[in-house]
Protein 1
Amino acid sequence: MTSLLSTEFSLSLSLYPNNHSHHFPSQNKPQSINFPTKIRLNITCTATNQPSQPQPQQQQHKHSKKSKKNETESDKGVNPVGFLTRLGISHKQFGQFLRERHKLMKDLKEVLSERNLMLKDIAYGFELMGLHRHPEHRVDYMEWAPGARYCALVGDFNGWSPAENCAREGHLGLDDYGYWFIILEDKLNEGEKPDELYFQQYNYVEDYDKGDNGASIEEIFQKANDEYWEPGEDEYMKNRFQVPAKLYEQWFGPNGPETEEELDAIPLEDAETRYKAWKEQHKDDPPSNLPPCDVIDQGKEYDIFNVISDPVWYEKIMAKKSPLPYWFETRRGKQAWLKKYTPAIPHGSKYRVYFNTPDGPIERIPAWATYVEPGGEGKQPFAIHWEPPLDCAYKWKNSRPKVPKSLRIYECHVGISGPEPKIASFSDFTEKVLPHVKKAGYNAIQLIGVIEHKDYFTVGYRVTNLYAVSSRYGTPDDFKRLVDEAHGLGLLVFLEIVHSYAAADEMVGLARFDGSNDCYFHTGKRGHHKYWGTRMFKYGDHEVLQYLLSNLNWWVVEYQIDGFQFHSLSSMIYTHNGFASFTGDLEEYCNQDIDSDALLYLILANELLHTLHPDIITIAEDSTFYPGLCEPTSQGGLGFDYYVNISASEMWSSFLKDVPDDEWSMTKIVSTLTGSRHYADKMLLYAENHNQSISGGQSFAEILFGEFNDQSPDSKESLHKGCALHKMIKMITFTIGGHAYLNFMGNEFAHPKRVEFPMPNNNFSYSLANRCWDLLQNEDVHRNSFSFDKDLMKLDEEQRVLSRSLPSIHHVNDSTMVISYIRGPLLFVFNFHPTNVYERYSVGVEEAGEYQIILNTDDKKYGGQGHIKEEQYLQRTISRRVDGLRNCLEVYLPSRTAQVYRLTRIMRI
């Protein structure tokens, strides 16, 4: 049995609000201050009205009723099948699946709450995990590796020694959940003496440095005694076990029992009798000599005695405010720390985590590392400790822009954003690309391939380190500057996040992280993507949930990211990774192929993100259009703000490659672009994104323009055709859909070349891994295309096209190949026919009046032929019912052109 002597008692001071409960304290959490003492008693100190005291049965019953009431109130307004009811969909099996999923979510939240004070605390794991500076002149390291037997941090700061900074199983370094904890003490500089308080804290906040204010610790404590405590109170609060210790000596004498075996030999009745006799003996003593507590025996096996506080005294103590000002006076500033200590692990140090496993020793990149050099070409990967001095750390300058009512998103890849055949940097992108995006009229950027990945040719989708920006582009501070400058230009910054799978690399990724095969990922076939060679997350595991949910919050808190596009949801939602045929039957979305844990994760991710950051934007990329993607989670949905209509770009690609343009179906174009009318307002559309032009694909401009020669008549005709279709495709895709539109970098000026990352089959060439920005200055075709795209964005900014209600599509004619629809005061007319010119084509309008052309794809400034003359730009309605509408316009429609008319004058009849 353990001795009752020589141990420590811990007093937790809540120095910060919003306590996030985790296994160990971090620099932003309540800190544990340890007071050594030589006495340990098997006595539990509680207060009569503290919640930790067992409640009477009647009180427990009332509490149970209250909990039940709160549970009912929290469920108010929640309908697991609400969106099915709203849409009038009756499907018994899917409805039952949604109800069961709702129950699973409630159970999951209950389980998570058991290990976290508040459910949202699971999104703050990054404040504890990995490396963190602790105010008590040390660095704390925490890692989850349940399969390991020994853990050490190795790096150039300790000569890569696995024995210097380590923790062993069974020696306080490993808890019951598989978390390892290592403390790296700062090194005392030569000639300096240790702090008077061994729990001395230092303030690292920017521009805050008291240094030593000249007052000693004793003087500060004396000041607290004089100004804060009443006589006797400070003694009890400084060491609240002093009173039980004195009582112990009174009962058993100076040579009382020292072990539990000796204590068991004394009858409880005898101890209680001794105590009562002692109390009777001192009943006439002054109140100041009696302790502010009482001792009773409740007959519990796990508690010999309970020390019960005097209620009056306890209320008086609890009414006091915490003596934080005195505690703050004991803290020193950063300069004082630098004078006395050398960092345990200096900024820029390379490090890895060392595990001893049943299969032998291994080294890994820490899972929560925030800056990683992934290695490659025979180089060993390692993490880099990023803790720059305050005078060098990046300081945010700009606040986040307000979320606009319509999103015009510019999708970018930093590495290929430069004009030269090399990997561009964050700084290059900030200086050269961001001003172009602003000039082009977009209001958001979406970054792909930013999160650390080992192989550049994977475009960034085989992520290895989810908390690190890719070091090939620059430092974490370089990325902060990129985001900050974007905000300064009024641009939101979205990140394409890959939580659907991860790289299978062991040396730099999470695969076999602790030597086992079931740490972060499923084992067996389920743990491997069927076709991509990647690993599949085990979403049902508490630690995996914390890792992924905290990762989302990390990018928002650390880098001020404004939103996420969740990549390839079909890979995670289905055990077949989405590689199956779908007929649209709801049974396909609730059968045995569904990963319910993945759905619960997505629901939890959206709930936490929108709770913690109300202005956050989440976008779902799912080729299967899982039912309820953008429905509120309270109504049975997954809670996304937008979903990507992937089929639109696939349709355009198919048309351009396989279907002659005189055989294009107008009906298919409209039905594909509008999608489901129930969710059209939540739809994000794009004509082409990066998928159409990366690794073996072709950009639309490459298909349409080809290798043209300005001197050849056939080449000129082909070029005019390609330019005309390119503008029409962009215009109808932009104006017919929901409130969000996306364009991939370079497509706004019809980039003529595909993207091809360096890989073995092209001899690792960078010749196609860049963007030809010089075409904007040197080529009329691309300059004109950019001018049109810019005016298209301006159309939305001035006329609020995307933010309006969905268009009323009243004219779709497959034989004439004409499409017309109305959106607000705007009339859109498209003539896709390759040869037919319509002199007076009738299209219906509701309002009688004058309509003015405000955008014309055939305008000469856009490289068009200018067939519509200036006097034809203004049209007056004819009172004739066409397309089911009361009035009509007879418009001139050249072949392969589109016009936007605006109602400028209303005529009342």
Protein 2
Amino acid sequence: MLDALKFFLFVILLLVTIMLNQHVTSKRSAELDLELLWQIQDTKGVYVIANQTVPSGVYTALEQSMVIGSLLEEYNDVNTSWVGETDWTYLTNLSCLAEDYKYVLLTFHGVDTFASVSLGEQLLGSTENMFVRYRYDVKHLCDGDTHELRLQFRSPVVEARERAKDRALPIVPTCPPDVYHGQCHVNLIRKMQASFAWDWGLSAPSMGIWKPIRLEYYSSALIRDLTVVISELEVNGSERWSVAVRVYLETGLASAQVNGLLTFKIIGVPFLNEADQTLAVMNKTNEHGELLVEHGLSVARDAVERWWPNGYGKQTLYSLYVRWEDEAVNGVKLPNPDTMISEKVIRIGFRTVQLSQERATDGLMFYFKVNDVPIFAKGSNWIPSSVLPERSYDSNYVKFLLYAARDAHMNMLRVWGGGLYESDHFYRLADELGLLIWHDLMFACSMYPSEPDFLRTVQEEVRQNVRRIQHHPSVAVWATNNENEVALRQNWYKTNANYTAYYTQYVELYVRTVLPTVEANDPWRTVLLSSPSNGDQSLKERFIATNPQDPRYGDVHYYNYFLDGWNAAQYRGGRFVSEYGFQSFPAYTSWPEARSYRQAELSQLINHRQHSPLGNAPILTMIELNLPLPRDPSADGYWPELIYLSQLSQAMIVKTETEVYRARRVEYGTMGALYWQLNDVWIAPSWSSIEYGGTFKLLHVWLRDIFAPEHLVAFVNERRQLEVVAVRDTLQPDVQLWDVELRIHRYGSFRLVERIRQERIRVPANTVELVSTWDVYGHLAKQGLHPADHLVLLYAYLHPADGQPSQPAPQPIAENFALLDKLKNIRQEQRVEPTVSISVVSAVCSEQSNLTSVSLEVSVSAPALFVYLQLTPENSTLKQCQFSRNGFLQFQPVRTVQLTCVDPGCRNKIQARDITVRTVNELLVR
């Protein structure tokens, strides 16, 4: 009886939910999500998946219904390729009442990608661009009857293939390299370019309704977007902020007269002129039902706080409220006046951002100034958080990744041009966390068409997305594409034979279409034509620079896979390095197949997922140059050891390169270091610092030091000198005094060989200061010491203020290390394998946050090199586990490390046996 009652209540609740979501009965709402009870099926009716919600995608629906296994497991990227080559249909029933509403529009915020849209027997239209919002007038069909809403999707793989036929000039590259296991001609369609595979990602030619569908109903005008231009002014001695607001109104899909009042408020901030609060509007929308209204606001400069990037100050945000009210609301008594009112709130930040490209002695500078302060951009490149667009907007996972960037002291992320215009949630978090956004438009590594239909949809794509994103203070710069200028100039895709034709297409698309469209909708920011590019210099060279990678101009992308990446002497840097990096393998325990696969099977899978045309050779080469390389792929423990060494090598390479760039801020004018890449879309070899799912590689743990606002950089330069540089990104105080200590250690003993101290090093704010260049090799030779047996540990302390006694054990503000020879060259007598033990000091789990925090003590009997801690596979229910330190040098007997994990329900009790330990020592003593 109780079960029957539960079922009855469930049915009632379901019916109420359906009515609330599918049948419009209230005039007091402006929009209604159509998210429940969709059916997805293939055109032959073989697969019918009922009771689906949107946003949705075909792959996700097939996985959830267990028609296919997880796309991200084993070889399912290939095994499920039939999904992307099949046509699919989305169906639901829609009943609505137009009654007295003037406008009823069915609005699709994101359809992936080619679909015919019908309501009942009427074809509403078709979609062809996953980045575009589509609106259809359905007022005449909102008659209270139930109509079938149907989206018939065409395979993007087949559509791209059809568009490639009979082209006089092929749009290259026509297909990705075979090692991608991908699909062809993605550059002919306006879809996430990485959907058809990339060198870090699988092919997943997705289809579906990847953003919300909303029924919008109103009787006057709707505020679609708000954009702002905020600038500092001085008027008659009064310092103020000017806020130029653009309000984009819509009246259905056709021209209409609008008469009414716009009201403006910045919550908690008074305007200098009270009259600015309202603006009367009497105008006509254009033939598409759109009207732009511009209005200026002014606030006193001291009435607000500035917005700053992470590490430079607070991220203060203010709510800008705009309300539209039709004149009829006050003219006559209306039964439902809300249908003639529209409101929108956005959060804005008071800040200035300038991309400075002033003349230098050897070219042009290239750096960002925020609030007139030069900013060294530290950060990474962002790819979509999922290869399936409907999953890429997962708010919790996006939050996790962006917090991880913030906590690693990043202040900039580059949204890469082969992915997506990200969710509103993404940009809101970037605003809150102080992460500046370098934003590519969604064109990458390719030539593109320039026929009128393609340019038309691109123009609409850019217009809509720039308007949506523009108000966010985190957005710092736009670039119209990723690597297309350098690809054309350097003949990546054999374009030289038809260079003039491809050049003409390039100019038509980026110079005459994308660039002016961005500038028309965002006059607040600089727009770069490409990345990398020579910035202003590229414009002088007719948009394609002779050398788009010239380090004296603009930004550069630097990859070198076979020179020794551990050697600092090979890095020069440019003005701004917006891509660089190196591959590694995900942790052994991250491969779900690792438990059941034999070594040869795991090797085969890893090689299948290695999409770099160079294969694993760069990883193996770099390990072999510096570390003992495991030789027998069939041996037990081969992959756990190789994975560990790959992550250590990646961390060392990115650390070395980044620290050189930070140290060369003054010498070479280097003002940006954005490594490739922050995140991943599956478990596979890649350049990421965070694995798919959230596990930190060693690199990401190290980034907390590499990007620290106050850092001590040390490396052996091209003159074989140990170069020590103090780095400060902090603004206060103007000058700090540092004491710097160099400790020479022998690998096999805790006992210090020598301590060298320099005191009262003057380190100004927001710059770098050379501490010393030291002939460490000559110094060791004089004492008869061999470099291969030694390394240098470095520490920086704040010098005690005059009159204050020194602390007995001052805490370092920065610490680092410098290797004097390759680890594989450590001589036999210094190759000591320590006994390493782990003990749990304390463990606390919060049931409210589901976070468990464990304090660990790591004890060693001798110096341990690059201690690598991992949870065993048996703890797979724990998520996003991170060690406060990992891959560390331990030259003291005991070290404390914190482990935090997401543990739903606090069900796990972590013990010492749950943690495995690896060191380089154990490989050296074999």
Protein 3
Amino acid sequence: MHTAVHNEMAKAPIAGDIKYSWQSCDFCPMEVFKSSSEFVRHLREKHCTREGGSFVCRYGSNSVCATLPLDGVSDRDYESHVNRYHVSQISKGPEQWSVFSAAQNLPAVLNDPNRSKQTTFFTRTWGDSFVDRTASPPTGRLPDITWNHFQIYLTKIGKRYKRHSRFEKHLSVSSSHIGHHLNGSDLSGDYGLKDIPQIFMKPHLELSNPATFSSVFPGVGDSANTSQSGRLLQEKLSHYLDIVEVQIARQVSLKSSAFFHAMTSQDTIMAQMREASADVRQLRNKLRQIDEAQVKEALLVAKLARTRTHYWSVLEKLRLMATVHQTQPMIQLLLGTQDYVAALDLIWTTQEIVAQELIGIHCFRHLPSQLMEMERLVDKMLATDFEKYSTADLNRPLSADEKVLDEDKLVCIISGMLRKKNFSFIDTYKEEAIVAIKAIVKQLVIEVIASADEEICLTGAGEEAQSLSLGEWIRLLESATGTLLKLLKRVKAVHNVMQHTADASAGKVDATFLDSEAFLSPEDHRVVQLRLGDLLHTISNYCHERCANLVSNESLERSSVTAEDISRLSGIVGDFCSGCREICGSQSVALKVAVTNQGTRFANKFHTERKSKLALLLDNERWKQADVPAEFQRIVEHIGRGQFEWSHEDGTHGSPPSAVLLVDGEPYALVGAALLLVQIVSEYCRCAQQLPLISAQLSRSIVDLLRTFNSRCCQLVLGAGALHVAGLKTITSGNLALVSRALQLVLWLLPHVKEHFQRLEGNGAVVTGYETVEKDFVSHIKEIENKVLSIVCSLVANQLGSWDARPPVPSQAFRNISRHFVKLHEAIAPILPDVQVHSIYRIVHRSFKDKLREQIVKYNIVNNGGPQHGVVTSELTFYLETLRTLKAMPANELRDESLNDIWIK
């Protein structure tokens, strides 16, 4: 903890230094800024998010600014916030460290979730030892050093040390031996250097020290024995002096040969010194001559050359100062010609020259601040000129052939913005375009309202208050989409100029309109590209949203909308989406969703009306055969060819109705509800072909309509609901046959409808629901057939139950059976196809034989040619003749041999 605090204090500026907060970013340590405007631009790009039209400051810990609300502010308020809280702050010297600066505190230690429950923290003292220390594991980067690593060094040095110790010991012994020899000679008498106190052997004998003085002169100052102690001390010191002189004399006598040798060598050395002195004098004379003849002139030449270089440097400096002095007029001239890039380059170059080459020049002490003011002026001029240009360009009258307004001026402004790395001009143009779109839509609404008869009020957004007629409403949408496409073309043209200018500024393309070298870095160029792409995408989406607001109102619900109206609306939206995709390269789903919603509303209304109409028709249906108008015959013929689009006057005017409907050459006797069902289904198919966007919903609606028709028919006929709803007295076989024939017509219609919707949805599309409907209709037809059979078979069984093989022939029971067969044939033969009629009579015939066989067995009648056998034969002949007359079955199935199986062999 202390180390961390120390490091933080080391990083802090020295006490008393003043540092502006905009010089560096607290969260981007590599960023350094020369001015506050660069810092503000950095905050907008890196530490700001835009949510809708609001700006949210993210400059703070965890990307949260403590002084700005999280819901964001406007662009102007965000600029004021940055200047007030992030630019105007001044960081002073480091604060004094206190206990509150610690990275760890007592609650953090006690509430550590990684530690188990602590029970001893009340008995411990807060300090370094409060937290248990854990031993750090050994690092794997350092090797494990053992004694063996020093063995080679110790072996090598040990030998040298032993040799040194022996040599030192030998020298000690030799010195002590020589000293003993000298001390024991006749010259020393009984005394040696060992008799002299060691205090006199010290290199620094300071008598001024009281302790040293007392040791050297003991007893001095004692008044009693002053004279006696003085003589003794004098004798002792004289004795010490004699010993020293004797030792000196002994050493001189031992080194006498060396003294004589030194004296002899002194003469030789003096002679050599005299020769050397002569050589030095001679050398100095020669050096003096060389200095006079060659060195002084050469040094003078070098001095003059250096002086000339200094003069040239001063001249260049003066010329540079003269050039810098002309900077301000030149900048004014460049700004007058709108050459913002050159003006900015000149400002920055001059600032660099003043900071590096002309530093300390008193006359230019105010020039840097003046240049900064001019740079701010250029910023304001660029922003003002671009805003004026955007307003003038977007609000001028729209034309089919859109061209860029004053392209050279636009290129100059954009180049200046890019040179300043101020990319907010793209957002500015985006906002101006959005304002222009709002104004266009509002003006179009006002024009439509002005042409309307009734008084209408506007909403705040500029849309009408849902009181326009359908024609006015669609005309408004058509006018709005066309106008907005023209505006998008104008925006696209300006976008292309911005993109080309950015590419030229980054050196991507060659451009003659830029005099300077490429100045846009690859990173900045990518940022500009992303913003330009977002410009087109955002404006296109906003156009779609404004049109979607028009489409999403409730005008359609209050008007009688036809499929043609929805088709026209879909065409308008499709053309607008295609135009936006061609211009901007992207499309929005907002308008398509709005149109789809309107189509869905129309489809729901369309289906509800026809479903109610069909239900009303079925409730009022008398279930009798109806005449078929020529129009319905034409509808079926077109459906058989896969066509659902035709004219109402397609050769049917004045044609009389027919009794049956011919479907692929087969007659269909139908009720009126069945004919109207075909017409309603054809209307669904025509509407789907006209409005492909709701074809899937219409397909599902047809399935629902057919299920409703099937279930309602079953309730009214099989369930006898028509007796109460339509007032029928009874449900006859003819009614059942007509229902069956109507269901068969729907089964013929289903594949054509399914194929039609598959073609609308695409070859790979799957149209669901038709298989289930087909199964339901087939099952219903089978139920109707079973109902007819149950009625007839019940009548046959009742008649045969009272029959007996006795005259007269034919019996009343067989006469009644024949009468029922004739009535059934009269009821179903004109309605149902022959195949189905034969199938019904075949089942009835089989039931007749089974019941007759039971009666023959009951009365024990055998095939023996007897009277009872003759009666039965006559009855069967009458029965077969009735069936042959009705042609209820194929002739080969009505031969006399077909009844042989009734006899028990």
